[in-house]
Amino acid sequence: MRKLIPILLLTILALPAGAQKYACVNTEYIMSNVPEYNQALNKVNKYVEEWRSELETRQAEVDELRQQYQQESYLLPENLKQRRQDEIRTKEADLRSLQQQRFAPGGDLDQKRAELLKPVQDRVYNAIERVAREKNYAFVFDRATSATVLYVAEKYDISNQVLEMLGVKLGSSASPDGAGASSSQSNRNGSAQGNDQKRIDKK
Known about the structure:
about 200 residues, mainly alpha, Protein Binding, DinI Protein, Chain A, about 70% helix
C-alpha cells in the first residue's frame, strides 16, 4: 500500500488544475484536541499501568521462589526438590500466560483500545468524510501517517474544520503544525510501555 501512495500523489499532481480537489488532515492533532479521546486514552493507560504492576508482582514471586530453592536445594530430598521445581515451572507458565492475555495481539490491551478508543476514532473519520463531501474534496491525506507528504501549504489542511464539525472549540492560535510536541510525547510514552514490557519478558 505504501508503494502506491507516491504513484497516487504523482497522478493527482499531474491532473489539470481544478480537475480534482484535494486536502489533508493531521489526525494526531485532531485526536489531541478531542477531550473524549484524551479521556479514553488515559483510561487505556491506567489499565496498562495496572497490568504492568500485576506482571511485575508475579515476576517478583517467581524470582523469590527460585532464589529460595537455590539456597535450600542442597538440604532437600529429591521428592521435595521435584515438588519445588514443579511449583516454579507452574508459576513461570502462569506468568507467560498472563503476559499473552494482557498484551498479545487480540489480548486485553487490544480489546480495551477497541472498546474505548475506536468509537472516538470512528467519529473523527466520519467528520473527515463529512467535511470532504461538503467541500467536494476527491482526496484527503493524513499528514500524521504518510511519510510521502513532505510539505502541505496550511490552506489545504482541513484539520480545524474537522474539529469544528466535531464541536470542538479552538483558540485563535490553534494550528495543526503545533501537534508535533504532543505527538512526540505520545510516541515516547508508547515506547516506554513497550520497553517495560520487554524487560518483563526477558526475566
